[in-house]
Input
Amino acid sequence: MALKALVTLAAVWPGADLLYNTFWGSLGINPLETLLLTSGETTLVLLLCSLAVTPIRRITGWNRLQSVRRMLGLWAFFYACLHLAFYLLFDRACLYWSDCQIQPIIDDITKRKFIIAGMVAFLAMVPLALTSTQGAIRRLGRRWQTLHRLAYLAGVAGVVHFLWKTKVPETKPYAYAGILVALLLARLYFSWRKRNQSAVRGPRSAVLMIVAVLGAAACSGAPAVWLDGEPIGAEPSSFVVLAGNWTVQQEAGAPILSLDGSTWKTGTAPRDLSSKAMALFPRSAETFGTRVLGGLQFAYGVDRSVGQFGDGEIQVDFRLIGGASDQFAGILFGLNDDGNHYAYRYNTKDGDTALWRVVDGERQRIHHGGVHVEIPMGEWRTLRMRVQGAAITGWVNDLQTLQFTLPEAPTGRVGLWSKPDAVTDYRNFKAVGAQGL
Output
């Protein structure tokens, strides 16, 4: 009983902490990101704990540990349901069925790799939760154990979901991947030892071997490619367009984001602004939406996968295509729910980089880099900037072009920013927190 009470307390704690911080408004500048990350990571931790019960029991001989395996699995399913609910309610604004837009959800499930992996994990957990009762165990007999090997599929898909969702270098997803691979290998070892050191064979071992190999292969992969899985020719869902005509195109089989200022007029409101505002700033969506509508003078958008960004580096490859007044590429940072933000940009008119501040829709130049850079049309270059407290450093490729200290350290959402008439291609957007540098 003491063991079960301890497990229950540990499982309840993350949810209680979320509830407490929600009540007191302490979820940070991006509450949705906090809700999704906490519920998703708690699901994965509990699922891995449930998979670890049998290997630990066999190694230590602590048989009482087996009594909490189903409990851990059910708590994992509970947090998985919370994770899915947060996505539907806040990311997709399905607060009421009449407001729920089904097609964007279907597009996410069928076209975004990390969401596909997440849905596989969730669907694998559903029959496990439904058959967790003693009655189901009696009715299914030996088939119950076979069915509950889906827990390994759920574990692999859950880790892959976390890896593919993480578009900036972090050690935590790879740590979970290593734990999962170790658990799968332990399962194989005990299966092999049970057969008195004979070769691993039979359908059960074959299934476990396949899961282990696929898990190791998937977990060792690199983080997801920016815009991977987005429909070609359409506005992306992983990049939240707030102003301008941004569409996903393809080059050499890889996705790029194209801004075509020649087809956009300043003042044109973005599509589905209420849903976009809810996804970026759930607690102040209406206010943020109003501020966006009051400042449609520049083309810009936000990378959905990056939450509150403070110290670290942001970079993107860009290719200048055209523009009526000048050719332009820029990085947006420090966007908050008041709509105000900063931009680090390059343009051909001045031939250098500069730092701007946008307040109430009006642009204010803060600092010119002063380093002249000639960039030919149609060639890829890299725009990169580093934030260290209030200090801003900027580069074009490896050439430092800007150094300036703001009055205070900027924090907020990040993305891309441009003059309204610019025609520019972008690829490989990355935002790396200071811990990943």
Notes: The CA atoms of residues 12 and 240 lie 34 Å apart. The first strand starts at residue 239 and ends at 243. The chain has twelve helices and 14 strands. The two ends are 46 Å apart (CA to CA).
